[in-house]
Write a structure and sequence with these properties.
- The protein is an alpha/beta fold and 436 residues long.
- The strands form three sheets. The protein has an eight-stranded mixed sheet with strand order 3-4-2-5-10-9-7-8. The protein has a seven-stranded mixed sheet with strand order 13-12-11-14-15-17-16. Strands 1-6 form a two-stranded antiparallel ribbon.
- It contains 15 helices and 17 strands.
- The structure holds S-adenosylmethionine.
Length: 436
């Protein structure tokens, strides 16, 4: 039986297991049958349960979820109006260091009659709601990474109190209202512990109890549309925030993304960099010397006011992908040109004339995923190329992995902030080319 989920069940095996289940008086055998049917059971197992066969509660839930998933995996209803629950907190999660951008964008774009912007913490900005709202409204914002709906705060552990509190969070009216309200098809969730493993037995109990409280939502790790994340919070990590997250893959904000490169930027970082650039009174000519798949150019062009976007990259595949992504983004007001060349040769190969560019926006190689032999040399050449290409007053915005910046006084530092780029810090910097 243990092997069945791996080797597959043939005709009649489910019925044989069910008839064994009905005959056996052995608890151990029942438990084992339950575990297998959890993975391979279908309509016959559910029918047996409704006829009174006793199976572990988790088996019924898993089988139901698998059957419903096969019928209709479902989708997230982005436009559905969700209830204005006064106690609900929505965490806009972002990389550390980007909170200021998230807050500023939320203040600018969200309807203040519907949302209130609350606490800003490292890696998150909190919203509360005054009126029914939809995910579409929140996904107008491009600077956050994911959203989490608060289900509760609990003390970490694996004991009875932890099991009961966590199952109450999952089985709560709030979790059901959000999942049922914003799901077309069965409301299925997976349970995730980003920080550390918990005992399987404890997790099974949590899932069973949550089902007893709210049988309309189902635990199902496969292709789940929602996740319930248990995230340690506080300095000592003794407490955990329980958050419900829609699993939107691909992210609806990145519908333009036809393809990707190995060292692609974190998309919300590209959106934050575009905001840092701000809008210029004059139509802009922008350049990303290391354009990769083109995210920075696309995000900045989407904000409007860009006449020409130049992208250069050494990798021909990146240039082809950036071109396709830009076309799919449909920013008609910007003429985009992508050329495969070393940024040092962009004057000759990509037609970047001296003092012609108003904004350079880029995530240069950081030397992490792809090793760079001489980072200092690469950055020295990058600054020289920027000074040459920028108009007086033009801006240079980039993620700087080094401790040093440009030595040339032609570039004046206007802002610098530490940003977590996924486990290591960089400075997100903006320089302006002096007028004289
Ligand atoms: C961090 S990635 C850029 C990711 C990009 N922002 C995106 O959205 O996908 C750095 C890129 O620099 C390119 N690159 C490395 N050295 C270069 C050089 N000397 N000239 C031009 N491009 C270079 C790499 O091919 C890579 O695509």
């Amino acid at each position: 039986m243990t092997a069945l989920p791996k080797i597959g069940v043939g005709e009649g095996a489910e019925e044989q297991m069910i008839s064994l289940l009905k005959q056996t008086g052995e608890e151990r055998e029942k438990r084992q049958l339950g575990r297998v049917l959890e993975k391979v059971g279908g309509a016959a197992t559910l029918a047996a349960v409704s006829e009174g066969a006793t199976l572990p509660a988790l088996t019924e839930q898993k089988v139901k979820a698998a059957l419903l998933r096969k019928e209709n995996p479902g989708t997230i209803r982005m436009q559905a109006l969700l209830p204005a629950d006064a106690g609900l907190r929505i965490f806009l999660r972002c990389r550390r260091g980007l909170e200021g951008f998230v807050r500023e964008e939320a203040t600018e774009k969200l309807d203040s009659g519907t949302f209130t912007i609350g606490e800003v913490r490292p890696g998150s900005v909190t919203l509360s709601v005054k009126k029914p709202f939809s995910l579409t409204m929140i996904y107008e914002l491009r600077c956050f990474a994911t959203i989490g709906f608060s289900l509760g705060l609990l003390r970490n552990g694996d004991g009875e109190a932890w099991i009961s509190e966590l199952s109450r969070c999952i089985g709560s009216k709030r979790a059901s209202a959000l999942m049922l309200g914003a799901t077309e098809g069965p409301a299925r969730y997976r349970l995730d512990f980003p920080a550390r493993g918990h005992q399987r037995g404890a997790i099974r109990q949590v899932v069973e109890r949550a089902y007893a409280l709210a049988p309309e939502i189902l635990n199902d790790a496969r292709q789940a549309l929602w996740s319930v994340d248990v995230i340690p919070v506080g300095v000592l990590g003794t407490e955990a925030s329980v958050e419900l997250r829609p699993r939107l893959y691909p992210d609806p904000r990145l519908a333009y993304r036809q393809d990707d490169v190995a060292a692609a930027s974190h998309p919300p970082l590209a959106a934050c960099m575009a905001r840092l650039a701000g809008k210029s009174a004059e139509p802009e000519i922008i350049w990303d010397p290391f354009c990769g798949s083109g995210l920075e150019l696309i995000e900045r062009s989407r904000l409007g006011g860009v006449a020409v976007a130049h992208g250069t990259d050494l990798d021909p595949a990146a240039i082809e992908i950036a071109g396709r992504n830009f076309a799919a983004a449909g920013v008609k007001s910007t003429c985009a040109e992508f050329v495969c060349c070393d940024f040092r040769d962009a004057g000759r190969d990509a037609g970047i004339k001296p003092a012609s560019v108003s904004l350079i926006i880029s995530n240069p190689p950081l030397g992490r995923r792809v090793r760079v032999k001489n980072m200092q040399g690469l950055f020295a050449d990058f600054y020289a190329a920027a000074i040459r290409a920028l108009k007086p007053g033009g801006r240079l915005i980039f993620a700087n992995p080094l401790r040093t910046g440009p030595n040339d006084p032609a570039l004046k530092l206007e802002s610098s902030q530490t940003v977590d780029l996924g486990g290591f810090n960089c400075q997100l910097e903006m320089y302006r080319k002096r007028s004289s």
